[in-house]
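From the methods appendix. Each design record in this collection lists the tokenized structure first, followed by the designed amino acid sequence. Records were kept in a plain field format so they could be parsed without special tools. The example shown here is representative of the layout used throughout.

RECORD:
FOLD TOKENS (338 positions):
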């Protein structure tokens, strides 16, 4: 079985008999090793003691007074978030159960990075055994922001952080306008995944260095649909079918899920009968139709009508997918939520 997404930390978790992931001391220690929590050279003794004691016993209770004793206010904030997150991880029956609870009840008291890291871990579990690199590349949208660009009439998506790093590197080298002209690709130093190079994804899945042709590669579009299906099935047990569509043809459409803030805004405007501006319409990068296999699970208000999924980019052409919306927004009948 091929390995991928080692950086997710899935090897630091334990898979329970029910298929979900269980937190381990090793996973908490990996969080403690992050730069935000490693005591800097000028850290106070209380911060050094707290960090050392948790590295020795990652699950030990932490009193509020221990965090209040930290001299640095930023450190107090970081440790408050981390300990609250760790306590939730430890108390939950699985990482999946915690994610579903956060998606449905809200996670406003946690930094977004924690939700993204959970999505990364859970997706790695959900996609275990997947042999399609297009699905895996599309699934990166669930936990990594993407930069959109048009190239030869096709919409490309590339990892936003990687693009920014490359732009900084080019700037540091004082790249001339002429050298920029000689790089015709939208993301000059990245390969765009296609059927000839897709196999190379396995060796660089953690590098986030392959762009995705969402605009004209049917395998890439299908990959996004399959990733969404696996995500919903893994977290809710609900079987769905997802397909890309060109437009909402049904005049009596009942339900939509915005897959990001911009997609939600556009969907609300359409729901209210507003005419979209050309700019707003151009921001939609994927419109999908979702069907739930078992009609008995569906909210009666939706019945057998499809659910539309709207994914869009913001004014800076950044795509910030919110996979929790698929869980919170899925129109399940009362009592059917997994």
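DESIGN:
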């Amino acid at each position: 079985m091929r390995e991928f997404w080692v950086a997710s930390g899935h090897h630091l978790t334990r898979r329970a008999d029910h298929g979900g992931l269980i937190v381990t001391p090793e996973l908490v220690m990996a969080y403690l090793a992050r730069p935000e929590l490693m005591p800097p050279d000028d850290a106070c003794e209380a911060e050094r003691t707290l960090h050392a004691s948790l590295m020795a016993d990652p699950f030990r209770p932490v009193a509020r007074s221990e965090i209040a004793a930290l001299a640095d206010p930023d450190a107090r904030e970081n440790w408050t978030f981390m300990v609250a997150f760790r306590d939730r991880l430890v108390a939950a029956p699985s990482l999946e159960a915690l994610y579903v609870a956060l998606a449905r009840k809200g996670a406003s008291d946690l930094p977004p990075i924690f939700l993204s890291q959970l999505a990364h871990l859970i997706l790695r579990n959900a996609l275990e055994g997947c042999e399609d690199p297009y699905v895996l590349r599309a699934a990166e949208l669930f936990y990594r922001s993407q930069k959109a660009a048009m190239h030869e009439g096709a919409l490309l998506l590339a990892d936003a952080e990687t693009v920014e790093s490359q732009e900084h590197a080019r700037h540091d080298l004082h790249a001339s306008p002429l050298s920029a002209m000689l790089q015709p690709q939208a993301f000059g130093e990245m390969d765009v995944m296609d059927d000839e190079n897709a196999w190379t994804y396995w060796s660089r899945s953690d590098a986030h260095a392959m762009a995705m042709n969402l605009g004209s590669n049917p395998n890439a579009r299908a990959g996004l649909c399959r990733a969404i299906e696996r995500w919903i099935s893994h977290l809710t047990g609900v079987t769905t079918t997802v397909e890309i569509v060109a437009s909402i043809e049904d005049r009596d459409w009942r339900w939509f899920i915005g897959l990001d803030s911009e997609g939600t805004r556009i969907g609300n405007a359409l729901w209210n009968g507003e005419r979209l501006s050309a700019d707003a319409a151009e921001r939609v990068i994927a419109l999908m139709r979702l069907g739930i296999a078992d009609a008995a699970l569906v909210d009666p208000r939706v019945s057998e009508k499809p659910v539309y999924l709207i994914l869009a980019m913001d004014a800076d052409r950044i795509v910030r997918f919110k996979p929790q919306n698929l869980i919170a927004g899925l129109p399940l009948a009362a009592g059917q939520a997994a």
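APPENDIX NOTE: The mean pLDDT is 92.
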